[in-house]
Design a protein that fits this description.
The structure is a single chain. This protein has helices spanning 2-18, 45-58, 71-74, 88-95, 110-118, 146-163, 181-199, 242-260; strands spanning 65-69, 100-104, 129-133, 168-172, 206-209, 216-217, 220-221. By secondary structure, the protein is α/β, with parallel strands linked by helices. The protein has one domain (36-260): SGNH hydrolase (Rossmann fold). The longest helix has 19 residues, at 181-199. It is globular.
Length: 267
């Protein structure tokens, strides 16, 4: 028995020696979630057409202000009737004389906005300011956790800073909605993290604002400030109405005017 055990131990030692010295472990790479990976939606016809149309619009001339986002941003283009779907009066009041460009796409998550930014939608631009409002769809069907959403929004901000080095960025927190407790809690967690990074840490050329409380009344979501409950059939409140967007525009205006170096359009 002793001889057999000695032979086995000796064989194990030979195998270990044949393998050579232990190699150092490769450095750990930071996990990159889908929220921070550029993903296109070119297989969706309307999305592809809108992307191509925006590339053509970018080449038409001067753009001093850019809005980057999802359907909440795209709806700035909507015209009534009814009045509760007409966003043009507010857009004209605040942005009509600022050569503003709307780069909002329905259904986009951070990954889709990131892809658009990397594929021409910031090419040749040097606006005075850009407003970033993204992240609502990260909490929708894809249901990405707070950590992933923060990394996705940070990726968007970093890409904007890289491609628009002379532009002041105004980052808005994820707006409140009526999509359940998980969405509400995750959105709040994301906004707290964004505040810690961009408000408390003072990242160059980035100003952070959480305008979500403007859409609350007595601490609860004010559904009268949203379009969705008025649809047929009604849907959970997600998209601010013209009245809701007017509150947001007025609240960010003093900061935006300072960033752009022009007049306060609330006065």
């Amino acid at each position: 028995m002793t001889t057999r055990r000695t032979l086995l131990l000796g064989a194990a030692g030979l195998l270990a020696g044949a393998a050579g010295p232990a190699l150092p472990h490769p450095p750990l790479r930071r996990r990159v979630p889908l929220a921070a990976e550029p993903i296109d939606r070119l297989s969706t016809a309307w999305w592809r057409r809108r992307h191509e149309a925006k590339l053509a619009e970018i080449r038409t001339g001067r753009h001093d202000l850019v809005w980057l986002g999802d359907s909440i941003t795209q709806q700035w283009e909507y015209v009534g009737p009814p009045v509760w779907r007409d966003f043009q009066p507010i857009w004209r009041k605040f942005y009509g004389d600022r050569h503003a460009l709307n780069l909002g796409f329905i259904g986009d998550a951070t990954s889709h906005l990131l892809w658009r930014m990397m594929h021409g939608e910031l090419e040749g631009l040097s606006p005075k300011a850009a407003v970033i409002l993204i992240g609502a769809n990260n909490l929708g069907r894809v249901h990405w956790p707070a950590e992933d959403n923060v990394l996705g929004i940070e990726a968007v901000v970093n890409e904007a800073r890289r491609r628009l080095p002379r532009t002041q960025l105004l980052l808005l927190g994820i707006l409140p909605s009526d999509r359940g407790p998980w969405v509400a809690e995750t959105g709040q967690a994301v906004n707290r993290a964004l505040h810690a990074t961009y408000a408390a840490s003072r990242v160059a050329n980035v100003t952070y604002m959480d305008v979500g409380p403007l859409l609350l009344r007595d601490g609860r979501l004010d559904r009268t400030l949203f379009v969705d409950p008025r649809l047929s059939p009604p849907a959970p409140a997600l998209h601010p109405s013209p009245a809701g967007m007017a509150r947001i525009a007025a609240a960010i205006e003093p900061t935006l005017a300072r960033l752009m170096g022009d007049r306060d359009h609330t006065l």
